[in-house]
From TrEMBL:
Keywords: ATP-binding, Ligase, Magnesium, Membrane, Nucleotide-binding, Transmembrane, Transmembrane helix. PANTHER family: 4-COUMARATE--COA LIGASE-LIKE 3-RELATED (PTHR24096:SF339), LONG-CHAIN-FATTY-ACID--COA LIGASE (PTHR24096). Its cofactor is Mg(2+). This is 4-coumarate--CoA ligase. The lineage of its organism: Eukaryota, Viridiplantae, Streptophyta, Embryophyta, Tracheophyta.
């Protein structure tokens, strides 16, 4: 008997747990991956058969891009990038832009050449973006006239999404002109293999600056294959409210829906009532939301339902944090015809994790669903390294074809997070129950989730201690009904200092993107720490929330 057959015979059909190797296996259908090793993700996406007509709609203007328009635009932009700008396999291309129906064209064009996509949050300051540029060293950047000044000191050549002349910026192309230019007919390009890097997304680090996550064409193709296999998602009208610079928005709404042949209505930025107007106007069937937005929809349900026709809406997909029983039931009470489905993934897993795919599964309250197809999981005791079983809590480890290759130019962090056997250590405290459902108990990683954005405490702490009146500082997540969490700082002042809360908040707000701002400050004699010097955040969280 082959090892795979022997393992399969020992897997419990209810939980997916195999006692012989202490591994949980997905109960979903097997993942069907293409056998061709020389295959870029753009080619895989465009090779999928579908009957879709409209690929993208701009929610604000109503402008539509058909699938034939999309393919034509990708072909022309690819040609310009290669022959006119000189982009080659392995070159890094930065995208700094709000959501746009043209952003998928750029992503697909860059990846078809074997060049590497990296993205930056448009809310980030010029200083934050410059640090990412120094690490990733992009050859060219795509941006808008409004955002281009943030790149003025970078020395990078710019392709603009719209006409404009920006002081200090060398413009080498206008995207609309590239999309309308006839191809040169010279199609000689380098061969792209599935092991080649396709994407370099920056994930918030817990111990310092964010890290570039290296994802291959094979990693992204595995995610696309998983999307294509979900027949229930074909033919839907998705409303994209999440940022396309983030892994979820990029993989699902800029690329995955193209493989499905589904339509995506794109909001340039999130605003609750604009979202509802778009649902009504374009008859959207699927929304993707962070938990705070779901809470807002519950709290304002009477006003929303009185003003907007949401009869087309069938599904809300939620990620970023598990939904409580109270929130799930509250949503279903207010919107009884809409299914709510949670999910779990990381930038490092490229969509591989767990998800809820039916009304029955959504009733497993607090769960983020069953393991995605092609995903294996282990629950590991952090202290002993022992691999545990059903209903036992420990750190979640994941393995799948979509797991990233590691961190860019950061061997130490790669070794800490990705082990030699290919397991990704998620840093989340979880358990899997006897029916195979994954539950996230706590975050071992110290990231703060503000309205779906990740904020690293260490980054803010490093800034705080540069203030001349601050001896030490610690940043913790403070619970908030609207935002989910926001950064709160505990500050140890110098003895004679009269530093105020407002002064601390202003000091940080000038240096970081709006979502990273500290919104609450408490002063303390000293920051509690372990004998080894690690901040005892749990003690501070307990102190901060004791009066709630």
């Amino acid at each position: 008997m082959a090892d795979s057959e022997r393992t399969s015979s020992l897997i419990d059909s209810r939980s997916g747990f195999c006692k012989s190797n202490s591994t949980f296996y997905s109960k979903r259908n097997p993942l069907n991956l293409p056998p061709n090793p020389s295959l870029d993700v753009t080619t895989f996406i465009f090779s999928q058969p579908h009957r879709g007509t409209t690929a993208f709609i701009d929610a604000a203007t109503g402008h539509r891009m058909s699938f034939s328009d999309l393919w034509r635009a990708v072909d022309r932009v690819t040609d310009c990038l290669h022959h006119e700008i000189g982009i080659r396999k392995g070159d890094v291309v930065l995208i700094l832009s709000p959501n746009s129906i043209y952003i998928p064209v750029v992503y697909l064009s860059v990846m078809s050449l074997g060049a590497v996509v990296t993205t930056a949050n448009p809310l980030n300051t010029a200083g934050e973006i410059s640090r990412q540029i120094a690490d990733s060293k992009p050859t060219v950047a795509f941006t808008t006239p409004d955002l281009a000044p943030k790149l003025a000191d970078s020395g990078i050549s710019i392709v603009l999404d719209g006409a404009g002349s920006i002081p200090g910026v060398r413009v080498v192309g206008i995207l609309s002109e590239m999309m309308n230019k006839k191809p040169s007919g010279r199609r000689v390009r380098e061969r792209v293999n599935q092991v080649d890097t396709a994407m370099l997304l920056y994930s918030s680090g817990t111990t310092g600056p964010s890290k570039g996550v290296i994802s291959s064409h094979g990693n992204l193709t595995a995610y696309m294959a998983r999307m294509v296999a979900r027949k229930s998602m074909q033919g839907q009208i998705f409303l994209c409210t999440v940022p396309m610079f983030h892994t979820f928005g990029l993989l699902t709404f800029a690329m995955g829906t193209v493989a499905l042949g589904s339509t995506v209505v794109i909001l340039r930025r999130f605003e609750l009532h604009e979202m509802m107007e778009a649902v009504e106007k374009y008859r959207a069937t699927v929304l993707a939301l962070a938990p705070p937005v779901i809470v807002a929809m519950i709290n304002r349900a009477d006003l929303i339902k009185a003003k907007y026709d949401l009869s087309s809406l069938r599904t809300v997909r939620c990620g970023g944090a598990p939904l409580s029983k109270e929130v799930t039931e509250g949503f279903l009470e207010k919107y009884p015809t809409v299914d709510i489905c949670s999910g779990y993934a990381l930038t490092e897993s490229n969509g591989g994790g767990a998800s809820v795919e039916s009304v029955e599964e959504s009733r497993r309250y607090g769960s983020v669903g069953l393991l995605s197809s092609g995903v294996e999981a282990r629950i590991v005791d952090q202290d002993t390294g022992r691999v545990m079983g059903v209903n036992q809590t420990g750190e979640l480890w994941l393995k799948s074809p979509s797991i990233a290759k590691g961190y860019f130019r950061n061997e130490e962090a790669t070794k800490e997070t990705f082990n030699v056997e290919g397991w990704l250590k998620t840093g989340d405290l979880c358990y899997i129950d006897d029916n195979g459902f994954l539950f996230v108990v706590d975050r071992l990683k110290e990231l703060i989730k503000y309205k779906g954005y990740q904020v690293a405490p260490a980054e803010l702490e490093a800034l705080l201690i540069t203030h001349p009146d601050i001896l030490d500082a610690a940043v913790i997540p403070f619970p908030d009904k609207e935002a989910g969490q926001y950064p709160m700082a505990y500050v140890a002042r110098k003895r004679e200092s009269k530093l105020s809360e407002k002064q601390v908040i202003d000091f940080i707000s000038k240096q970081v993107a709006p979502y990273k701002k500290i919104r609450k400050v408490a002063f303390i004699n000293s920051i509690p720490k372990t004998a080894s010097g690690k901040t005892l955040r749990k003690d501070l969280i307990k102190l901060a929330t004791s009066k709630l």
